[in-house]
Amino acid sequence: MILVPPQRAVPGRFIRYDSTFLTPFGTGIDGLDLHIEWLVNRAVRLRRNVGYATRLLRSNMTTPLHLPAYLQPRVDRLIEQAKDQAAEDNRGEQRFPLFQPVTLRRGSQILSAFSRDVSEVGIGLLHDMPIGGKYTISIQDNAGGQYDLPGVVLWCRPCGQGWYISGVGFCRNEPA
């Protein structure tokens, strides 16, 4: 007895083959042989196409694993720089990346910035002018809810042409 997958049947279920079994290529053993030959040829064609696609991707596209030789040292330097900066980080709280626009308010002063990361005790910011003192930080969540968080700038330093990064600690009281 030969078990073969039936046409239009539940996947994974098999029926018993007999001479009245109908395939798309006819009935009986001859139809089954033609069907099996067709399936084998299709598998070979698919394998050939996958091989062609793989060779095409490897030859024509740059992937992170295969950078051009002139770029690799530059990327390596950037990675080392990032590792050095991470080693200098002396915070005790775990931070989570959070890059989105925020608004800083103090009285009538309103500034725009971007959050870099957030922790339970503060938020890292990127902005285009030096800041200091107490602010109310307005930030939106993904659902559209707006939060006003009181905070005080703990540090601020330049990080490029006209850009600054800062660390803001959350306050328990509203800023003045």
Describe the 3D structure.
By secondary structure, this protein is of the alpha+beta class. Helices cover 28% and strands 38% of the residues. It is built from two helices and ten strands. It has helices at 28-60, 72-88, and strands at 3-4, 15-16, 22-23, 26-27, 96-106, 109-118, 122-127, 133-140, 146-160, 163-170. The chain has a six-stranded antiparallel beta barrel. It has a two-stranded antiparallel sheet with strand order 1-2. The protein has a two-stranded antiparallel sheet with strand order 3-4. A hairpin with a 5-residue loop joins β8 (133-140) and β9 (146-160). The longest helix has 33 residues, at 28-60. The radius of gyration is 32 Å and the shape is elongated. The relative contact order is 0.08. Residues 12-19 have low confidence and may be disordered.
Summarize the structure.
The chain has 176 residues and is an alpha+beta fold. The chain has helices at residues 28-60, 72-88; strands at residues 3-4, 15-16, 22-23, 26-27, 96-106, 109-118, 122-127, 133-140, 146-160, 163-170.
Q: What is the terminal-to-terminal distance?
A: 87 Å
Count of DSSP H/I helices: 2
Tell me the structural class.
alpha+beta
Number of domains: 2
Shape: elongated
Largest sheet, in brief, is: 6 strands, antiparallel, barrel
Nearest-integer average pLDDT:
77
The total count of strands amounts to: 10
Strand content: 35-45%
- Name the CATH architecture of the largest domain: Beta Barrel
List the topology elements.
Blueprint: E1 3-4, E2 15-16, E3 22-23, E4 26-27, H1 28-60, H2 72-88, E5 96-106, E6 109-118, E7 122-127, E8 133-140, E9 146-160, E10 163-170
Antiparallel strand pairs: 1-2, 3-4, 5-6, 5-8, 6-7, 7-10, 8-9, 9-10
